[in-house]
Amino acid sequence: MRAKCADPCKWYIYASHVPALGTEDFVVKTIYDVHTNCSHAWRNKNMTSNWVADKFEESVRSNMNMPVRQLLQSIDEQYSCEITRNKGYKALAMAKAAIKGSASQQYIDVGRYAAELQKTHPDTTIDIKYSPRADPESNPRFMRFYCCLGPMKKGFREGCRPLIALDGCHTKGAYPGELLIEIPTTSSEYTFISDQQKGLDSALLELLPDAGHRYCVQHMYRNFKKKHPGEVLKEKFWSIAAASTVEFYEAALEELRAYDQQTHAWVKRAAPPHHWCKAFFPLHVKSDMLVNNLSETFNSHILNARELPVIGMVEWIRQFIMEKISNRVYWMRKCSGPVGPAIKALIEEREKFSRKWKPISNGKGGYQVRGPKGEQFAVYLRDRTCTCRLWQISGLPCCHAISAILKIGRNPNDYADQCYSRDLFFQIYENVLYPISGKSLWPQSDIPILDPPLACVQPGRPKKARRKGSSENRSSVHVGTNNVQKLKKHVIMHCRRCGQAGHNAATCKSVPENNGGEGCSQPAPAPKHARKSKDTNNGSSTTHGANSQEPDFVHVEVQGYSSSCVNSQPHGAEEQTTSHNDTGSHAERNAQAATSSTKKQQIRKTKTLVRRVRPVNDTDQSTTAANKQSLHSKRKLSEIDKIRINTNYEYLGKEPPFKIGRWAGTSRSSRSRSGRSD
């Protein structure tokens, strides 16, 4: 192989392949390493996207979110070459495809991957659904993939609370779909919590008619806030959901009714209280959770996995859970006590409020606890109950019970339910996930070769960011310099034509009536910045603003032509007012008005456009000639005009022609003249 630089440079190199070395490398035989009369070539046609993807595959593997600008910078630093951004995007896509694997190829290998999971994880349930063949020569098409790993199933049955969070999220790969989480056990003792999605109620009633179903109160509040905003209503709504007894629930409802009857009617029409109020939760679940944060947190952790193909996504989630189990066991071993650190912190927080309550013992494990505002509850330590019902619902002692426990010198952590104990935690987390081998060692499967699902590409740029709810902060605060948070200004757009909010004149649908091409029948609101122009001849003033009764918009422009009353200024420019000179005879004004009307009728077409124009009335039409004459007529200069003329003369280095007061600008003009002597 021989390579040389462009003429007249004499640089060249000669290299050849040596089979005796047993490699595919080339050995340099001759080189003349001196460049003369040539410049550096930044573009190299041999640096293709395939070559860049192969060279930077490991760099992309270490940073899957590498931006294209970082790739271009690395090429410039290592090879002193430049490539286009399009070639950089293509190279990154090829490198990621080589790392993640082809999406269509993963649907072919999904059967072998399922067989590997069943081999390494006993008692694993996997169900793959695919559509039948359209014709004998085609392959069936992939539809669904369900997986429940055996160790996860066993750990849930051995000690987890019977509470199942349901949620779904959209996958954002080459073949978009949905990722759902399910539990295969069908027991009437389980309680499900969801975001009140449509269809879940009917599905649960059909499959599990005796199972409980909770709604996420946060999602209910988002719907509540749309019609009933405000911090006061927010507190009252959440106080209803957090009521732990029926009496507290009815009292909170009555308080809301006294404050706002419409809001009270909305709550009564909402879902039944056993779906979202603590007072109606079953006691065997041992959970007072009102929101579906379990699912939301899990979805935020697997955000990167949702962009991968089917095998890559499932494998990413499996590895994430495997590492999570290992880390939790590691940190739990470092803790001491009967419960974990999170439960211990929650009980310590309740201990602070327990000091406001005074327990009185009856000598047989019963305590009458009195506190602020004359409230009083009955606590029974042997039965682990309190009349506030929070201890029975959550399984953790409330502040009333903690005050009685501290009175007898016991540890409140010992009175937590068995489901929170460290021993049960280790028993559950003994069921770990196991590593699997690479693709080359996967067993064969009896599932046929599958084609990928039909991809429906939506228009526009793919959206990856989560939609924020109405109650969430939507970039109303941005961080400025020195990390100072500043409130953004939200400007409400108003139409200059109809005065309504939410649109502008270009998209206004309230078309005014056409009054013969001379103006609208109804006046539009005045501009925000109205200007006044004084007639220098007669001293009268004309206001284009709030006091003006003339319209700002008329149908005047036609296809290919425009009438003389169209404003020639660009859209949004400030309107200029001209002085009206009432010179000329009455007969001349009538003749000019008739001529103008005849010309408009000749050029008027069927298709019209709405444009911003200068208001026109009968007086303007009759004084068209007078206005033209007044534009060229001389008027007496005011002091402000003389000052402006003097300023222009000084800028040009000339002597100002006017002397106003004691100032004529001679010193500045002399400096300007000396500076412009050249």
Overview features:
678 residues; 23 helices; alpha+beta; 14% strand; zinc-finger; SWIM-type domain-containing protein; single chain; 3-stranded antiparallel sheet; disordered C terminus; 4-stranded antiparallel sheet; DNA-binding
Structure description:
Pfam families: SWIM (PF04434), Transposase_mut (PF00872). Keywords: DNA recombination, DNA-binding, Metal-binding, Transposition, Zinc, Zinc-finger. It comes from Coffea arabica (Arabian coffee). This is SWIM-type domain-containing protein. The chain is built from 23 helices and 21 strands. By secondary structure, the protein is an alpha+beta fold. It has a 4-stranded antiparallel sheet with strand order 11-12-13-14. Strands 1-2-3 form a 3-stranded antiparallel sheet, with no helix packed on it. It has a 3-stranded parallel sheet with strand order 6-9-10. Strand 12 and strand 13 form a beta hairpin. Helix 7 runs antiparallel to helix 18, helix 10 runs antiparallel to helix 11 and helix 11 packs across helix 12. The two termini are 64 Å apart. 18% of the residues are buried.
